[in-house]
What does this fold into?
Amino acid sequence: MNLSKSRYTRGIQCKKMLWLEKYKPEEMDNINNESVFETGNMVHEVARYLFGEHINIDFNSNLEEMIKNTYLTIDSYKDVVITEASFKYLNNFCSVDILVKKNNKYELYEVKSSTELKDIYIKDISYQYYVLNSLGMNVTKTSLIHLNSNYVRHGNLELDKLFTFEDVTPDILKLQDEVKTNIEDIDKYMDSEIEEDKKITENCFKPYPCPFFKYCTRNLPINNIFDIASMRTSSKLKYYDQGICDFKDLLNTDIKDDYKMQIEYELYDKEDYIDKEYIKGFLKELTKPLYFLDFETFQMPIPLYDDVSPYEQIPFQYSLHYIEDKLYHKEYLAKPNIDPRRDLAEHLVNDIPLNVCTLAYNMSFEKTVIKKLASLYPDLHDHLMNIHDNIKDLMIPFKYKKYYNKLMKGSYSIKYVLPALFPDDESLNYHNLDLIHNGSEAMNSYANMGNLSEEDMEYTRERLLRYCELDTYAMVKIYEKLLEVIK
Ligand code: SF4
It folds into this structure.
């Protein structure tokens, strides 16, 4: 089989994953990796400049062309830095992110957009070393380059601080026999047209979730151990390995009461559980006027603005409902292609008065965003921290299962709680929204807004506002539901 870096790493995660890609591709679930790819590309493009002048081997669907151009470049220069240098040994192809040629010796650098070294990266680089070494190239150093999460931008990007180098040469050398065996094993496995049965293991989840999981678990009972919310994968596998998968069988084990609750509610169609006293106590803590706040944020691997670290959450939008004599709504959405933080912070302190109670759903996120804004703007600090200190979490009654029904399926995320409380209310259904239905679509739409025509920008802007408005309107409805059920 023709292998590449990514095929090799998928193959060592599970050979059957590659086999299914080849023989049953229609069974693959659509895991959307678009923004991951975009992130990776952005990091690669910046990391190249760590080495100054370089020659890039342009992508060509004809890999032989890329290989030919690589050798031409290598032969034309005594010393050179090449990005996307491409090689093939037998059926094993690889493009090296950055290859440095010095005195007929080579250094291989793999760029990752993560902020840490992971085991799978070592395997990926081992494969590349294997290909180059098998071609007779003298590779003297192999390194991983990843983002430094402690870097904070001040002024121009400082590439030497933004990135961290990890020399992994000794680990790579130790793995060379293993790479050879792995490639042989994968080749043999792929030659067979007979599908092997394979048990579910940690490999189905790590390092990447397998897109064939649904297919491989198709013969398990409809309600099974893998449907239990918030149970660790290792615990799920412990029961699975003992053959205890069915919800009914799990009830006879020592699993935690929270999990039993999910199982019993789903199996026996139980009535809603409502701890009225607890909910009364929770609501008593909330004072009027009552505000409901939700932020939308974006993250970039390469910090775009001062005082930002890789992947820091940058708020660009909020929706705010508040109840005084009746329900009101305010909203903020930044213009595209600007640093939105100062303007957003000013609007926020104008929109939320001092000493009012603000509700968020899963408040740690909103609190982190506000605290960061407070640290950036000393003149707004006290007001922002006053908002921060008066935030309460609407998630609490659901997190502690003081209000539970079977449709929540063991989860307390608002995406489960909302339809569970209002199964027939179409006005609260995110699927009915146009264009933007979740946080990552909101983030991507905002990031892309600057490239749109006036008309399309206005259209996207309106869709973003309606999406975020639904987030806080949903919170208002949940709050009203809590008031209703304690009567
Ligand atoms: S679900 Fe697991 S066993 Fe099935 S192909 Fe994926 S990794 Fe392999």
Q: What stands out?
A: The first strand starts at residue 55 and ends at 56. Residues 14, 16-17, 20, 198, 200, 203-204, 210, 212-213, 216 surround iron/sulfur cluster (CB under 6 Å). The mean pLDDT is 95.
